[in-house]
Amino acid sequence: MRAPNANEILLQVEGVALAFGGVKALRDVSFNVKKGEIRAIIGPNGAGKTSMLNVVNGFYHPNHGAITFKGSTRSKMQPFEAARGGIARTFQNVALFKGMSALDNIMAGRTLKVRRGLLWQLLRYGPALAEEIEHRRKVEEIIDFLEIETIRKVPVGRLPYGLQKRVELGRALAMEPDLLLLDEPMAGMNLEEKEDMSRFIIDVNNHYGTTIALIEHDMAVVMDLSDRVAVLDHGVKIADGTPDEVKRSQAVIDAYLGVAH
Amino acid sequence: MIALGQFLEVLIGGLMSGVLYSLVALGFVLIFKASGVFNYAQGAMVLLAGLALVRALDLLVANGLPLWVAVILAIGFAAVIMAATAWLIERFVIGPLVNQDGLTLFMSTIGVTFVIEGAAEMIFGSDVYPLRLFPTDAWFLFEGLFPGGILVNKLDVWGALIAGVLVAGLAVFFQRTKTGRALRAVADDHLAAHSIGIPISWIWFVVWLVAGLVALVAATVWGTKLGVQFSITFLALKALPVLIIGGLTSIPGAIVGGLIVGAGEKLAEVYLGPSIGGGIEYWFAYVLALAVLLLRPQGLFGERIIERV
Q1: Residue A30: its H or E element
Q2: A9 to chain B, closest Cα gap in Å
Q3: Are strands A9-20 and A23-34 parallel, antiparallel or unpaired?
Q4: Which of A132, A152, A176 is the last residue of a domain?
Q5: Is the dihedral of CA A247, A243, A191, A159 positive or negative?
Q6: Which of A216, A261, B51, B109 has the smallest CB count inside 10 Å?
Q7: Closest approach of chain B CAs to the CA of A195, in angstroms?
Q8: Chain B closest CA to A108's CA: distance in Å?
Q9: Do B197 and A175 touch (CB under 8 A)?
Q10: Where exactly are the transmembrane stretches of this chain (chain B) (predicted)?
Q11: Mind listing the pLDDT tens digit for each residue in B179-221?
Q12: Is residue B147 classed as helix, strand or coil in its secondary structure?
């Protein structure tokens, strides 16, 4: 799965612009994500990375431009519709259900997959029970995969930050998404945690074949991980290509290191 | 033996009326748990549900329907009214205020209170309407053991039974169903809930609907006890100390808080009344709530409030 299928485009972002009052967060940004690849969007702080992710996921509606996902084009969409379409995401500052256990958090990720109605579930009988068991099996598989067996019953609010990030990844995986959006998955982590998270991201991509688009400002991590990298600066895309190409781009070096005026 | 008999009678009577406070407090807890909104309108919703029920029932009986058919139809009608109310509140009040401060939402529910009270009385009338869904006579228990026996009101027993069934049902709903899980998820984090595909507007409708149905249940019992009338809205005030004692986020807390308030105020009235003057019933719950606030601000069963700075 590591070799992306060169022809099939999963997500196409075309000329997206987004402004908050006078602040132009994104200006005419276009890029695509191919099926099966790990795609990174990097840039200095305030470059518009998270805004871009929020547009794809439906939290923000772009002022201009269109987004084509799995062949259907739209400019406005609610987040839960994006989720139904197969887009899952994590958040920069971890958005978990803090009062619920790790297991319940990941089970919550199965919400859209539950088919039986409320009454069946209240009775906990027959097909509904069988379905619940099936979901639980799937969730346990993810828990094993992310090596968080020992914390499954712990309310996530009590977990250390690195583990919370892992639970959040688990919840996104439980949705069995076509496209997984990761918002700074390594932010605030120490080196060891970063290495763990990188390994999980690559494993997810290999094992489940999930297409991943991630945002980072730590260049080193991204270069090892991704197939292709797009670079944003002040809401404008300044480079796009393989990690090596991007590394050599003068515009990227200027954006990260500053340029003499 | 007379002393013990009297004590038991007061205690049981107090516990049973405490259950009725719990029924009202439950509605508050449900909405607060699921949306972080303190719903001031819960008392008004009990009034609305009661009025819709009793007026429909009177009309149907007057048209010659057998009582049991009329009761079922009237309960159905009141449930539909509560569903419509839930939809309107979500659509026009809570929905547009999504992501606003808790205090803003609280203020909006005060507005909702006035609208519901006004609309309910305008549509269904503003008299005192007697409701006879449950027997209101009394049992005398253990007449051999205590002289005169222990008086237990049948209505209170019904109230306790209904509250028990309601709480068990709600517990299963919250813990075991996808919608229940979604409710808890929305309560914890709106954005995250959105991102895993939970449509918040639908969930909030469900929450207000459930709270509306709990209000309907409370209205059947309270309406039988007091008659359906405007003063039912003041029940909301009695539910406040119950919530503070039990904890705003806990369903068991609402029940236990109600029992403590109910038993406490009756016992205090009977045993402290002669020495410090009567009327203890009216302030006892609030003083108890103050004490709980000082010693355990999150309530007996509430989630411990931890603020990370």
Answers
A1: strand A23-34
A2: 23
A3: antiparallel
A4: A176
A5: positive
A6: A261
A7: 25
A8: 6
A9: yes
A10: 12-32, 44-62, 68-90, 102-124, 157-174, 202-222, 242-263, 270-295
A11: 888 888 887 787 888 888 888 888 889 989 999 999 999 998 8
A12: coil
B42 Cβ contact list (under 8 Å, min separation 6) = B24, B27, B28, B31, B211, B215, B236, B239
Q: Is A184 among the domain residues?
A: no
Q: Strand pairing partners for B249?
A: none
Burial class from Cβ neighbours inside 10 Å (0-12, 13-18, 19+) for residue B261 reads buried
Classified as helix, coil or strand, A60 is coil
Does A66 lie at the interface with B, CB-CB under 8 angstroms?
Answer: no
- Which of B32, B173, B196 is the best residue to mutate to test the A interface, defined by the most A CB atoms within 10 Å of its own CB? B196
List of chain B residues whose C-beta atoms are within 8 Å of the C-beta of residue A176:
none
Q: Complex ipTM, two decimals?
A: 0.75
- Is A188 inside a domain boundary? no
pLDDT at B59 over 80: yes
User: Looking at the structure, do residues A100 and A64 belong to the same domain, yes or no?
Assistant: no
Residue A152 is assigned to a structural domain of this protein? yes
Rounded (5°) CA angle B251-B157-B301: 20
Closest CA to B24 of B173, B241, B180: B241
Tokens standing for residue B125: 């009338």
Chain-centroid distance of CA A81 in Å reads 16
pLDDT for position A39: 92
Please check whether residues A139 and A163 belong to one and the same domain. yes
Dist CA B288 CA A84 (whole Å): 49
Q: Angle at CA A192, nearest 5°, toward A191 and A193?
A: 95
Domain with A155 in it: 87-176
Whether A109 and A124 share a structural domain: yes
- CA neighbours closer than 13 Å in the CB half-sphere of residue A176: 9
Tens of pLDDT, residues A120-142: 666 666 667 777 888 888 899 99
A211-216/A179-183 β-pairing:
parallel
Q: Is A60 on the interface with B (CB under 8 A)?
A: no
- Ramachandran angles phi, psi of B55, nearest 5°: -70, -40
- Whole-model pTM: value is 0.77
Supply the CATH number for residue A116's domain.
Answer: 3.40.50.300
Q: DSSP states of A144-168 as a string? A: HHTT-GGGTTSBGGGS-HHHHHHHH
Inter-chain contact A107–B181, Cβ cutoff 8 Å?
A: yes
Those residues with Cβ within 8 angstroms of residue B63's Cβ, 6 or more apart along the chain or in another chain: none
pLDDT, tens digit (0-9, with 9 covering 90-100), for B259-270? 999 999 989 888
Q: What is the dihedral of CA B35, B38, B40, B45, to 10 degrees?
A: 30
Question: Is residue B209 left, alpha or beta, with left meaning phi > 0 and alpha meaning psi from -120 to 50?
Answer: alpha
Residues A65 and A10 in one domain: yes
